[in-house]
Write a structure and sequence with these properties.
The chain contains four helices and five strands. The protein is α+β, with helices and mostly antiparallel strands. It has two domains: 76 residues, no CATH class; 57 residues, Nucleic acid-binding proteins (OB fold (Dihydrolipoamide Acetyltransferase, E2P), Beta Barrel), CATH 2.40.50.140. It has a five-stranded mixed barrel with strand order 1-2-3-5-4. A hairpin with a 2-residue loop joins strand 1 and strand 2.
Length: 150
């Protein structure tokens, strides 16, 4: 099959755009769609101006890829996708308010608490090993805890 059979280089770019669009549907990641748009723009440009050399096509694809990614990133900042769980990908925020068990006594030098199946460095209210504490903040990888009133 030659390029002429599929509409020349413009047709090849449009087929590439279609393939990238299908890839985005099969493996969603909100990235291939921007490349698909860039490939479609270049494909249409080549159909309008078939004398555009390959180097120009590749350069146009690179430029349009950057443009579509920048516009897409801006779009998702201005119009975020609504979710029923806004802290879905923010593990630290999900920890705030939960309880933990003190693994290593917490004092002025810190300590460690058990959260789920992991042990995290902790600071905050003094607590003996085995006590339950509430997580009030996460600073980097350090959890700040307070005593639970019983």
């Amino acid at each position: 099959m030659t390029l002429d059979a599929i509409g020349g280089a413009g047709g090849a770019w449009l087929i590439g755009a279609l393939a990238l669009g299908i890839a985005e549907l099969l493996i969603p990641g909100v990235f291939a769609v921007f490349l698909a748009i860039a490939a479609a723009v270049v494909g249409l440009a080549v159909l309008v101006a078939p004398a555009l050399p390959l180097e120009g096509q590749i350069a146009a694809f690179a430029v349009w890829s950057v443009v579509t990614v920048v516009i897409g990133k801006r779009w998702y900042v201005d119009f975020p996708i609504a979710t029923s769980d806004p802290q879905l990908n923010d593990r630290a925020a999900r920890l705030i308010g939960t309880t933990a068990i003190v693994d290593v006594a917490i004092d002025a030098n810190g300590g460690r608490v058990r959260i789920g199946d992991g042990s995290w460095p902790a600071c905050g209210t003094d607590a003996a090993a085995g006590e339950r504490v509430r997580i009030t903040e996460v600073r980097g990888g350090l959890v700040v805890v307070e005593a639970i009133d019983t």
